[in-house]
Design a protein that fits this description.
Layout lengths: L15 H24 L11 H17 L5 H18 L1 H8 L7 H24 L7 H32 L17 E6 L5 E7 L6 E5 L6 H9 L3 E5 L19 H12 L9 E6 L1 H12 L6 E4 L6 H6 L5 H21 L7 H4 L8 E6 L4 H13 L4 E6 L7 H4 L1 H15 L7
Parallel strand pairs: 3-4, 3-5, 5-6, 6-7, 7-8
Antiparallel strand pairs: 1-2, 2-4
Helix pairs in contact: 1-2, 1-3, 1-5, 2-11, 3-5, 3-6, 4-5, 6-11, 8-9
């Protein structure tokens, strides 16, 4: 069939069965959001914790279902294509937990959201095809289509993709407890945060009166924990909120995670083997960012090591010293990320770490970053160091990637880290 033979489809002549399919698919995606946010929220949370992240997407989906048949075909196709992508993305959480053998609760409606999203994408493509212009000049017709396709790819890459991936970042975290390789006897422990979440982890009792929180989670943090335990330090490693066996909503970028650190400090202060003036922390990557924020907000930590801290919202991105096209091309994506995380986590972006680190003193702080680490950590750690007040240290680990200092130079890493804590958490610390 030639282009000239393809009829144009108006709003009034749009096939009724497609309208029904679209409305049904939109409502299936809305059902999962309601289920996830209000009917079966994460342990330790309630419907009231998800008012923004639940009501806003549901309102958009229901409005789209109501107005779809009234929109012009091009606008309707664009709208349901975006919501189709959203439907597929919200189901990723269920796929991950199914693969981990942890399928439960709202994951079942999450699995239904994926075919609903795919259906919306198919209908969007079909609508665009059926309503394409066929009465204009051939060169302009195909030129316009190429421009539209190119603009769509750019929009997805710069804005839509970063925004949608934030749903995964705020709904998915490690579903299992990693294998124990600490190499020291430890206790299974749990403690509560100020906002009522139960966190669970392991604690190696102290043999020297001092203890260090190794953060985040019970995977990568075990490497420094093993070294510190061998030197007599008590070590606490635990699943952060929304991860492993701990309550709460996940947030891969660590917003509000400083509360987990505060709760860990309070737990260690109650331990008979720990002097409350001898509690420190070491944070890796996002754990370093949360450790820095916790140290800036309160002074329960008496020494802080942050390795691989970088950017966690558009605020830190604006503090980066990159210039020219790189900064302007990256800004929309970081703005979309920050907006999405705010929406789906029910939190506004935290303050810039550049502003926070100046409040850490007199607590000693040690910044570590890899020579070949992520762009944010390489760019921002010297900035954080300059903004912090003494006492402070910084170490660029030659040959190291992101949080790879302990692997790149294990003996030097051990020497520097242990010496830092020995000096800043001394046995004669005044209570």
């Amino acid at each position: 069939m030639s282009d000239a033979a393809v009829p144009k489809v108006s709003r009034a002549s749009r096939p009724g069965h497609l309208q029904v399919a679209v409305v049904a698919a939109l409502l299936v995606v809305a059902l999962h959001v309601l289920d996830d946010s209000f009917l079966q929220p994460q342990p330790g949370t309630s419907a009231g914790d998800h008012l923004v992240s639940g009501l806003v997407p549901v309102a958009v989906l229901v409005a789209a279902a109501f107005f779809y048949a009234r929109l012009r075909p091009g606008l309707a196709a664009t709208l349901i294509a975006l919501l189709g992508l959203f439907g597929v993305v919200v189901g990723i959480e269920a796929v991950y937990y199914a693969q981990a053998g942890r399928l439960a609760g709202d994951d079942y409606t999450g699995l239904l959201a994926i075919p609903a999203g795919l259906l919306l994408l198919v209908v969007a493509a079909l609508t665009l095809w059926r309503t394409r212009r066929v009465d204009d000049h051939l060169a302009w017709r195909y030129g316009r289509r190429v421009l539209f396709a190119a603009a769509s790819v750019v929009a997805v890459y710069l804005l839509v993709g970063p925004f949608l991936i934030t749903y995964v970042l705020t709904h998915t975290a490690r579903a299992f407890v990693p294998v124990d390789v600490i190499g020291a006897a430890h206790e299974d422990v749990s403690f509560k945060t100020a906002d009522g979440l139960r966190l669970r982890g392991w604690y190696v009792p102290s043999r020297n009166g001092a203890a260090v929180i190794a953060f985040p989670g019970r995977k990568g943090s075990q490497k420094p924990a093993r070294v510190l335990a061998a030197h007599g330090y008590g070590v606490l490693v635990f699943d952060r909120r929304g991860e492993g066996q701990s309550d709460g909503d996940p947030n891969a970028w660590g917003w509000a995670g400083y509360r987990d650190v505060d709760a860990a400090v309070a737990f260690l202060r109650q331990r008979p083997d720990v002097e409350d003036r001898r509690i420190g922390g070491i944070g890796l990557s996002v754990g370093g960012e949360m450790m820095l924020e916790a140290a800036a907000r309160s002074h329960g930590l008496k020494a802080v090591v942050a390795e691989g801290a970088g950017e966690r919202s558009v605020r830190e991105f604006l503090d980066m010293t990159i210039g020219g096209a790189d900064k302007w091309l990256g800004l929309p994506g970081y703005a979309a990320l920050s907006t999405g995380i705010s929406l789906f986590s029910n939190h506004v972006p935290p303050p810039s770490l550049k502003d926070l680190v100046g409040r850490i003193a007199p607590t000693p702080v040690f910044f570590i970053y890899g020579e070949h680490g992520q762009e944010g950590e390489r760019n921002l750690n010297p900035t954080y160091f300059a903004a912090a007040h003494a006492p402070k240290l910084i170490w660029e680990v030659r040959g190291s990637g992101h949080v790879g200092g302990i692997d790149a130079h294990p003996k030097e890493y051990e020497r520097r880290m242990v010496a830092f804590f020995d000096r800043t958490l001394p046995a004669d610390a005044v209570r």
